Amino acid sequence: MPATKKIPVSKEIYAAILDLRRPDETLDDTLARLVEAVKKQRLADDVEEVMARNTFVEL
Question: Which residue ranges make up each domain of the chain?
């Protein structure tokens, strides 16, 4: 059984999350999808930063 936690958010943020929710998703599904999207974007940003520096370590 998943843990249940209360996370205080403003009405504006709650409404924004609801707007991002897909018809077949729970709020948990929506938040999990958003977390994954942010993690992927951070990885892409890190790779882009390394490529821009053009400094690589030989393996």
Answer: 23-59
